[in-house]
Structure formats: structure tokens, C-alpha cells
């Protein structure tokens, strides 16, 4: 795996001001975002980023609901990595199994949540209709981020552990269902090149990392991706 450097400090230091700008854009653009194709009512589960909970994704889930999907949180509390989802992701898989009672579920994961979404999609593909990752550094070492030390502290795992390397290799492999990576070249926490591969579709957005799931371009992008997939399935 080629070494990928984390973003420059100049981007990291502007994350908070840009997050404030994202909130301002959301307030301005919220109503207009409803003018998107309607969904088909299938279930979409949103997985939060490191140390975040379902509260961080309320806006995204509300947007999906008003487009006609059935948006769900993961219901596992704060994302503390393996401490939350269990060994071999068994707790997360159990939640997705319950959600998939009416058919496969689309998984949308923010940052670490996207890595987890891809992991489950590989291990239980019959449960997953499609995957969308948002600023998720699944395509490089955790050291391609400015949060790898926080990851170790929160999760209790070591990024140099062979188990982590094996898991990342699994996550990075091409998925057997539609997958799209939403990424931003101005991300100050994770390297933008770590958030996508040539084996999946990719959508660039003009956003930093903090609050990325609130950015109007991301909300609109998610709606467009889901609509395009519905159109492809109908052909």
C-alpha cells in the first residue's frame, strides 16, 4: 500500500471556520434541497463518524425522509470503533439484519462510519443494496489522517496491528454492489486521495471534514446518487 500523507496543516487549521460556513449554507439552501427526485421508500441506514452518534446525522436523515426514503440511525450510540460495533462487527450486522427485514438496505457512512459500511457490505452482501461513503479514508493507512492517534485512544486498537491492516485491505477491495465515495480535496482531517479508489464511483464536494454531512452539496449529492441508482435498477 502506497504511503499517503495527511492533509497540510493549513487545511487542518481552517476546519472549524469552514464548518461554521457549512451551517450557514445549510440554513440558506435547506428548502431548495427538497427539489430532488423522489425515493422508493427503501431503508437507508446512516453510520456516524468517530466518536459521533446518530445525533450528528439528524439533518441527513431528515433530508432522506423528505425525499421518500426510510432513513434510520444505527442505534448503537457513539462510534467508538470495535468497542461499539463488536468483534467482527457483529452488533452492527445485527442492526442491519433487523433493518433489512423488507429487503436490502443502503448504507451511508460518514468518515469511520463509511469504513464500517464497506466492511459489512463485504461480509454480508445480501443485506446491502448499495454503499455511499462520505469523507471516509478507506483507501489508505490510518496515518493518512490527522486523527489516527484519536482513533487509537477511542477504539483501543493500534493502527500498526496486523489485524487493522487485514481489515483495511478487506474494506478497500471492490464492492459487489453499487458504491460511491463522496470526497473533498479541501478536507483538513483526512487525505482526499484516501477517500476514493478507481473501483467505485466518486463525487467531489467543496467541503472540509467537520460537519461534512451537513453541507448542501453533500445532501444534494446523496439524493442524486440514490436517484441515479433507482433509475438504473428500473431499466
Can you walk me through this structure?
This protein is α/β, with parallel strands linked by helices and 235 residues long. 40% of the residues lie in helices and 13% in strands. It has nine helices and six strands, in the order H-H-E-H-E-H-H-E-H-E-H-H-E-E-H. It has helices spanning 9-12, 15-29, 58-67, 82-85, 90-99, 112-123, 148-155, 162-172, 216-234; strands at 43-47, 70-73, 105-110, 128-134, 179-183, 201-204. Strands 2-1-3-4-5-6 form a six-stranded parallel sheet, with helices on both faces. Helix 6 (112-123) links the parallel strand 3 and strand 4. Helix 6 (112-123) crosses helix 8 (162-172). It is globular, with a radius of gyration of 16 Å.
Overall body shape: globular
Mean pLDDT: 97
The largest sheet, given as strand count, sense and whether it forms a barrel, is:
6 strands, parallel
What's the count of strands?
6
Tell me the helix content: 25-40%
Q: Which spans of ≥5 residues are poorly predicted at pLDDT below 50?
A: none
Q: Report the portion of residues in β strands.
A: 5-15%
Oligomeric category = single chain
Q: Return the string of H and E elements.
A: HHEHEHHEHEHHEEH
SS summary, helix count: 9
Gyration radius, to the nearest Å? Answer: 16 Å
Give the CA-CA distance, first to last residue.
Answer: 38 Å
* Class inferred from helices and paired strands: alpha/beta
Strand order of the largest sheet: 2-1-3-4-5-6
Amino acid at each position: 500500500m502506497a504511503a499517503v500523507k495527511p492533509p497540510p496543516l493549513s487545511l487542518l487549521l481552517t476546519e472549524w471556520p469552514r464548518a461554521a460556513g457549512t451551517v450557514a449554507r445549510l440554513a440558506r439552501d435547506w428548502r431548495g434541497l427538497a427539489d430532488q427526485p423522489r425515493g422508493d421508500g427503501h431503508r437507508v441506514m446512516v453510520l456516524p463518524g468517530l466518536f459521533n452518534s446518530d445525533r450528528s446525522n439528524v439533518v441527513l436523515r431528515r433530508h432522506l425522509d423528505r425525499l421518500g426514503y426510510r432513513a434510520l440511525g444505527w442505534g448503537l450510540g457513539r462510534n467508538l470503533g470495535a468497542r461499539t460495533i463488536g468483534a467482527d462487527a457483529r452488533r452492527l450486522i445485527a442492526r442491519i439484519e433487523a433493518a433489512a427485514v423488507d429487503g436490502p438496505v443502503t448504507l451511508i457512512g460518514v468518515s469511520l462510519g463509511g469504513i464500517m459500511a464497506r466492511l459489512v457490505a463485504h461480509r454480508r452482501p445480501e443485506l446491502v443494496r448499495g454503499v455511499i461513503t462520505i469523507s471516509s479514508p478507506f483507501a489508505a493507512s490510518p496515518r493518512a489522517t490527522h486523527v489516527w492517534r484519536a482513533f487509537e485512544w477511542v477504539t483501543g486498537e493500534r493502527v500498526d496491528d496486523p489485524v487493522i491492516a487485514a481489515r483495511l485491505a478487506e474494506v478497500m477491495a471492490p464492492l459487489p454492489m453499487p458504491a460511491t465515495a463522496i470526497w473533498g480535496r479541501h478536507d483538513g482531517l483526512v487525505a482526499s486521495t484516501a477517500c476514493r479508489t478507481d473501483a467505485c464511483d466518486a463525487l467531489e464536494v467543496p467541503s472540509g471534514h467537520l460537519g461534512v454531512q451537513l453541507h448542501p452539496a453533500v445532501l444534494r449529492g446523496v439524493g442524486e446518487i440514490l436517484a441515479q441508482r433507482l433509475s438504473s435498477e428500473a431499466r
